[in-house]
Amino acid sequence: MVAFSKVAAVVALAGSASAHTIFQQLWVNGVAAGQDKGIRVPTYNGPIENVLSDSIICNGAPNPMKSPAPADIINVPSGATLTMEWHHDPTGPNPNDASDPVDPTHKGPLMVYLAKVDSALTQTVTGLKWFKIYEDGLDVATNTWAVDKLIANKGFMDFKLPSCIPPGNYLLRGELLALHGAGQYPGAQFYMSCAQINIIGGGSASPPTVNFPGAYAGSDPGIHVNIYYPPLTSYTIPGPRPFTCGGTEPTTSAGTTLRTTTTAARTTTAVTTTARTTTAATTTARTTTAGSGTGAPLYGQCGGQGWTGPTTCASGTCKVSNDWYSQCLP
């Protein structure tokens, strides 16, 4: 039993630091809005680990949003089937990438939240009121996670928009939670992006809301959890349960039941793309004592612009990914 636990821990940490993911395209009833269109896509696909940080809202430092900010608002009919498309590469799907849409070690749940806003173009995300409309976690009987389904479905995740939600502008927050390092906190890895949408039609429901930060605590059993040993007999997804219209709304399981089009048959609307310029970040190692017992955990953040946490590593070496993010790596 002990040997299994140690092996599982090694496997969990085997995912490379680059095996991350980004929600980067929204489909509405089987039609793609366009790569990055209307979505606040970060410049880096790394995780957020501090549940008390404002970056847990729609992403942010150490993963600043691509510039310029998206000027598109995606129209969504009430009750539509929506599809979030996730990929490891910030530029889209890559058939030669073994970690696309995310590394298989990054097991965990998927969640979707909405926040009503006066304008979906607002750049102020603090203080918004969020309600969950979708979640998928662990099927204990088959030991299948929502992320496993996402990988099997090539990065596509379907869910139904409740038809009783009032019309208007919203931010749509997609979240993938990777639990391979969640045996300690910080350790769970949160990946999220927000899409700018306008719901057309709808009802007059008033869903109960939560705040980000505030909806999660580092001690939550769905955030601080060893998913390898002993085997889980249950798993509680963080945050509130999804809002439904009188309990009658259909749900999906990470792109498996409500899709009316296949991946091959999806149609994409033409969008104008502009060239992006990127600079190669030089990865350098900071001086630190590996296995000192203090500092950030393996794969945890250990530096970056504005970072106020630990700058040494309890295990591994603190390496710079970019100006905003350094990480403890083996």
What distinguishing features does this structure have?
single chain; 330 residues; mainly beta; five-stranded mixed sheet; cellulose degradation; EC 1.14.99.56; AA9_LPMO; CBD_sf
Mean pLDDT: 82
Order of helices and strands: HEEHEEEEEEHEEEEEEE
CATH topology of the domain at 22-212, by name, is Coagulation Factor XIII, Chain A, domain 1
Percentage of residues assigned to helices = under 10%
Strand content: 15-25%
Structural class: mainly beta
State the end-to-end CA separation: 25 Å
How many strands in all?
15
Uncertain regions spanning at least 5 consecutive residues: 1-17, 249-292
Helical segment count: 3
Q: How many whole angstroms does the radius of gyration measure?
A: 19 Å
What would CATH call the class of the domain at 22-212?
Mainly Beta
Q: Architecture of the domain at 22-212 in CATH?
A: Distorted Sandwich
Please outline the major beta sheet.
5 strands, mixed
* Net shape: globular
